[in-house]
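User: Mind C-alpha cell order:
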Amino acid sequence: MSTRAVRAAAGPWLQLLTGLAGSCTSLAMLVVHHLVNGRLVPGTAGAQAPLPADALWVDVDCPTAAEDAGLEAALGVEIPSREDLREIEASSRLYRENDAVVLTLSLATGILKNKDVLAAELHPLAVILSPKALVTVRFTDLTAIDRLMVQTARGCPATPAALLMMLLDTVIDRLADSIERIAVEIDDINRQAFWRGGASGRPQRLSNIALQSLLQRLGTAQDALSKTRESAVSLSRATSFLALSLPKDAERSAQIKSMTRDLASLTDHASYLGSTITFLLDATLGLISIEQNAVLKIFSVFAVVFLPPTLVAGIYGMNFAFMPELGQPWGYPLALGLMLLSAVLPYVIARWRGWL
C-alpha cells in the first residue's frame, strides 16, 4: 500500500498522532489568499472546497487528510505528503503532473533568529503551480512565507506564475541573509583565534576552554553552512526546471536568469566560506597542539632543572663512612651551592638557546 493510501486510511488518527509527536510547530491551517485591488487578502475555506474561484494563493500548514483530498480534487494534482517531501531523487522533487508544476524546495531556517548562536534547520516546502492558483504545502513555520504574505499585502502580481517568481525571490533573499550571518560568525571566530593582543601589547594565550568553544562554534557554523548550500542547490535545480517547464516569456526568463546568477554567486560564496571554516578548523587544532606542547615543554624543563639538584642531593645522601666533605664546616653550604648552581645553569642555557 502506498504512503498516500496509508494516510487516507488513517485519516484523523494519523493527524492526532502527528500532533502528539510534535512534528508540526502549529495547528493545521489552510489560508486562501484572494486578489483584491492589486493586493492579496487572506481568508479561510472549507476542507471539502479549499479552492475558491478567485483564489490566487493557498498556503497549507500541516494539512489534514480532508484538506489534501479537497486540494487534489480542485487541482487535479496529488498533494505531496511529509514522506514525499523527504525524497532526494530529482524525479520526486521536480515534476509535472497534468497542467501543474510541482517543486520541492529545501529551506534553511533558524539561522537569523538568534544573533548569538546559529541554530540551523532544514525544512521542505512543496510548491504547486497550477493554472488556477499557487499552492504551498509546509509542515512548520517558515519566515519566507511570512515575508511573502507581508509583501503581497502591499502589492501582488495577478498570475500564479508571477507570484511564484516573487516567492522564489523572497526565498533567495532570505538565503543570502543567512549566508551573510554565517560570514559574520566566521569572521568573529577568525578574530578570536588570531587577533589576541592584550592591553600590554603582548599576545594573550587562549585557554583550553576558549579553544573548545571555538571548535564548537566552527562545528555549528559548518552545519549551518552545509544546510544553506543544500538549500541553494535545491533552488538552483528548481529554477533550471522552471526555465524548461514554464511557457516562454521574456520577463519571466529574465527573472529566472537573474535568480540563477544570484544562486551561483551564493553557492560560490558558500564554497569560499567552507574553505575558510576548514582553514580555521585546522588552525584551531594547531593552536590546541601548541598549547599542549607548551604544557609538556614546561614539565620537561622543570624535570631538567630539578634533575641535577636531585643528583647532588642523592650523592651526599649516601651513607658511606669516608666522605671528606661531610666532616668539613663548609660541606653543607657547598652541597646547597652545587644544587642551586646545577638548577640555575640548565635554565640559563635553555633561555639563551630560545627554548623557553
